[in-house]
């Protein structure tokens, strides 16, 4: 006996409801699910977990980037009006007092015009001093951007300072910390308009004239002869031979010939960050402290690109 049209519609609706009930929840595994349904739901659950994890990681990265910019901006607003070139007679600078009130590890302030480099510098003398601030913000909070820090082996106080103050900072993708150092890479014009670095200790503020910038390997296996330039160990020059080793290697590698003169007895500032040409590598900017009564301005008219600069051993690094 044929069903009426209305009965057929009711039957199809009932069948559809039964299938829906059998199918159950789209995500949760339920009694009666077939093998294919179970596998499909497990796969969906894994995808959902991965998606949530990615959202959490991206959100965390974004928040750390934003919080870094806010903190650095607030510190700059707090300090910038107190920065002035000169010595404070062995007394703490007003800027240092402000920073020390926030972080007792404060050792100074570093700044390059027209960049995001206007940052406090810390130093921790303990055995973990060169790792402690890699993932800690200036206010002590956890942050992958870290804080600019002075090599723990260096000396910097009212009466003594090491020959070469080495500052380390992350090469952040958002250009915070030392991310803007890359502007000097093979860019003569940027150097010519920004040939100096301002660095304040807790007791004095000085202008440093940039003498070199270069990319360098870190591991001995990255070079054909197994020798690397260990600039990070050039902190104090015990004699002229050690000074000459430092200067000769710096000038040999520099991407720019700046024309800034150097001599035994000068003090230096080294800014070191990770580079992205290969892993691990470093990009380094080195500057000389202006001497007593020296004009802090730089004549960049004679600066030029160093086409014969010693480059990393690309064939060795990339196994060509």
Topology:
Layout: H1 5-23, H2 35-79, E1 86-87, H3 94-100, E2 106-111, E3 118-122, E4 148-150, E5 164-168, H4 188-193, E6 196-201, E7 204-217, H5 240-253, E8 256-257, E9 268-274, E10 281-289, E11 304-305, H6 314-317
Parallel strand pairs: 3-4, 5-9
Antiparallel strand pairs: 1-7, 2-3, 2-6, 4-5, 6-7, 7-10, 8-11, 9-10
Inertia-based shape: elongated
Question: What gap, in angstroms, lies between the N and C termini?
Answer: 83 Å
Question: How would you characterize the largest beta sheet?
Answer: 8 strands, mixed, barrel
Low-pLDDT windows of residues? none
Report the sheet-strand fraction. Answer: 15-25%
Percentage of residues in helical conformation: 25-40%
- Mean pLDDT reading: 89
Q: Walk across the major sheet and give the strand order.
A: 2-3-4-5-9-10-7-6
Query: What is the tally of beta strands?
Result: 11
Alpha-beta classification: alpha+beta
Helix/strand order: HHEHEEEEHEEHEEEEH
Q: Radius of gyration from the CA trace? A: 29 Å
Counted by DSSP, the helix tally is: 6
Describe the protein.
- The protein is α+β, with helices and mostly antiparallel strands.
- Helices cover 30% and strands 19% of the residues.
- It has six helices and eleven strands.
- It has an eight-stranded mixed beta barrel with strand order 2-3-4-5-9-10-7-6.
- Strand 6 (196-201) and strand 7 (204-217) form a beta hairpin.
- The longest helix has 45 residues, at 35-79.
- 31% of the residues are buried.
